[in-house]
Amino acid sequence: MESIDECFNSYLFPTLGGTRVGNKVKAWFLAYMVKCLLEAHTSRWKCDSKDDFKNKDLDRAGVLIERELRLQFSVFGGK
């Protein structure tokens, strides 16, 4: 049977580490998530739709092609 500390370290945000400092960060992050959830539930915080176009980072086709070409040239012997 696992102890509470082992469960906390292994299953609750495992990427934040299992140290005392990591556990403190986990607790603060969990408290922040609960705060945001309660604010959204009481309508003090408006939920955003991730799929709405106004929340998307849209670039022009030229910018996207330039970024892709720079990446390809750097991989295949460019600068």
From TrEMBL:
InterPro entries: RNA_pol_Rpb2_2_sf. This is Uncharacterized protein. SUPFAM superfamilies: beta and beta-prime subunits of DNA dependent RNA-polymerase. GO terms for biological process: DNA-templated transcription. GO terms for molecular function: DNA binding; DNA-directed RNA polymerase activity. It comes from the Eukaryota.
